[in-house]
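User: Can you fold this complex?
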Amino acid sequence: DVKVTQSSRYLVKRTGEKVFLECVQDMDHENMFWYRQDPGLGLRLIYFSYDVKMKEKGDIPEGYSVSREKKERFSLILESASTNQTSMYLCASTRQGRWTEAFFGQGTRLTVV
Amino acid sequence: GEDVEQSLFLSVREGDSSVINCTYTDSSSTYLYWYKQEPGAGLQLLTYIFSNMDMKQDQRLTVLLNKKDKHLSLRIADTQTGDSAIYFCAESADDKIIFGKGTRLHILP
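Assistant: Here's the predicted assembly.
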């Protein structure tokens, strides 16, 4: 019954490393999203994609990039990880404009040391 | 821009009702949502309400919407220890969803 899968639950990376966070959904959803969650700040949108190879910046895109080569997979890339990117990262997917059918992954807790 | 506000913490005795409040700014929102996040887990859509509705009830959950005041509330009847979680209010705007910062519900024995 898996719907949205994030490749890792926990990651520890060094400052300056390139980091890939992967998200896969099996529901043929058009939209996919990457959020980060920090205490006291709630969920903030980093990037989203509404179709293959299409992407839009969210509220906090600096220091991140994304890739959507296939409909089911949406990758978040930290080109050069920094300690202020230590956070919980959540992936979500929905049908076009249908947030009533949204599903979230279990989250990836990334620590940058 | 769009903004969703909610208090950060609520403490309730087991068996009492919990009421979590939220205000939002985007009057064009089509749907408003409540998500639940249990410790160590992702977000789970708990319930939602269409913007032309005033109230929606689903078992122990009651959602009230005051569109004039842009105020949304979630009432949990007979609160149980399993209800302990962070509850996020959210609104959909265009093709994005805007979340509040979350209200941590703490259950007292």
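Chain B touches chain A at residues 8, 31, 33, 41-45, 48, 88, 90, 92, 95-97, 99-102 (CB under 8 Å). DSSP finds no helices and eleven strands in chain B.
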